[in-house]
Specification:
It contains 3 helices and 7 strands, in the order H-E-E-H-E-E-E-E-E-H. The protein is α+β, with helices and mostly antiparallel strands.
């Protein structure tokens, strides 16, 4: 059964998609319906995705704040070298739960007063897509590290189980040797017991003869 579970785990890891599908389109945000790049993050709680986002954007020398009322993050004057023709750009991000354990990330890019889109800013949107891809990688690295820790724990558990089985096997072999010694001693005791029985039988026969002799003598005295 364990072999089957390990095989399934390996197959699952081997067939995981490397990157999500990034979808461009209008999404609601604080400034209305604006163009965004969106993708789904699976097997990770939304609260954790938000923590990872805040850590990720720090490298772009920007200040990030969350509008708790609108549930939206704003990163001011991010320096993203992937995006051409800009010294800095404003980033808006929203994260929405999708199902039990999935999150939809929607990232908006505001260059001065223009939200980037492929229709009007094709080259810049390529850079924005690369930025989103890097965030995707950042999330996947975290997930993979977490998965690695889980698999290491499982490996340690399997190794611990093996050590216990080896120890049990050694104890069983010791038990067999002990039982062999007991059997050998019992066999020796049986031989001795048989000899003792023969001696006891002989003594009984001898004693019976003596008793008959004494009885005969008593009969002669009548």
């Amino acid at each position: 059964m364990k072999k089957v579970l390990i095989f399934l785990a390996i197959q699952t890891i081997a067939h995981l998609p490397l990157f999500a599908q990034y979808t461009e389109g209008e999404k609601p945000m604080t400034q209305g319906l604006k163009n965004a790049l969106s993708f789904e993050i699976k097997d990770l709680k939304t609260s954790k995705v938000e923590d990872l986002w805040q850590d990720f954007v720090k490298q772009f020398d920007c200040k990030t704040k969350k509008d708790k009322k609108m549930d939206e993050y704003f990163s001011d004057n991010a320096k993203i070298y992937y995006i051409p023709s800009t010294t800095s750009i404003d980033i808006f991000a929203r994260f929405a739960e999708r199902g039990k354990n999935a999150t939809e990330a929607s990232i908006f890019f505001l260059d001065n007063d223009r939200f980037l889109s492929t229709a009007s800013n094709a080259e810049q949107m390529k850079g924005a897509t690369e930025f989103v891809r890097q965030f995707d990688i950042y999330v996947q690295k975290y997930q993979t590290k977490e998965q690695l820790e889980d698999e290491q724990k499982k490996l340690k558990k399997l190794e611990s189980d093996l050590k216990k089985l080896i120890k049990d096997n050694e104890n069983l072999h010791k038990d067999i040797e002990n039982y062999k010694d007991k059997i050998k001693k019992a066999e020796s005791d049986i031989v001795k017991n048989t000899g003792d029985q023969e001696k006891a039988t002989q003594m009984i026969n001898d004693q019976a003869k003596i008793m008959e002799q004494v009885k005969s003598k008593l009969d002669q005295l009548k």
